[in-house]
Write a structure and sequence with these properties.
There is one protein chain. This protein has 171 residues and is an alpha/beta fold. 32% of the residues lie in helices and 17% in strands. Helix 4 links the parallel strand 4 and strand 5. The longest helix is centred in the C-terminal third of the chain and has 16 residues.
């Protein structure tokens, strides 16, 4: 059974040290009161930022392809598969400014997954979304976790953290 966990952190440094709570197949939400610095990428780690990691001058598919190439993947079909996985089938030729906020976040998930990472770090991924759209994005991230990729979500929103099976409070 795939599990999801939420970690609520108090004041202090950013949430990246809390990555140690993530294991493949878990969705971990980190609720930091700290700096909000974006986590840096590392081998085996995909990063999803609030605005989705998208270059505005590239189509959605080209954004995914670029991320995959930077991670050593080369297949355009893989980009199409990822866009279908995140609910954006047929939107690959669109530019990021043509997407809704939720679609942009979904495209960002595809970009984060383009390198087939063992873990995705998501820093306030629902920060630009309204309540229902934010929960839809969390459902997508939990589905990513259920497929075997560890997911760490840094958020200040307790409702987002509540999408996890377990909440761990860290002082």
């Amino acid at each position: 059974m795939r599990r999801r966990a939420a970690v609520m952190a108090g004041p202090g440094p950013g949430s990246v040290p809390l990555v140690r709570f993530a294991v493949p197949g878990e969705c971990v939400a980190v609720l930091p009161a700290g700096s909000g610095d974006a986590p840096g990428g590392a081998p085996g780690v995909g990063v999803l930022l609030r605005r989705g990691n998208l270059f505005g001058h590239l189509t959605v598919a080209r954004n995914v392809v670029l991320a995959g190439r930077l991670a050593g993947r080369r297949s355009l079909r893989a980009a199409d598969d990822l866009l279908e996985l995140v609910g954006l089938a047929g939107r690959g030729d669109d530019y990021p400014d043509a997407l809704s906020a939720l679609e942009g976040a979904r495209a960002g998930v595809a970009v984060a997954l383009a390198g087939a990472p063992e873990m995705v770090l998501a820093d306030e991924p629902a920060g630009e979304l309204d309540g229902l759209a934010a929960l839809e994005l969390m459902d997508l991230l939990c589905a990513v976790a259920a497929r075997g990729t560890a997911v760490v979500v840094a958020t200040r929103d307790p409702e987002i953290a509540a999408a996890a099976h377990r909440i761990v409070r860290v002082a």
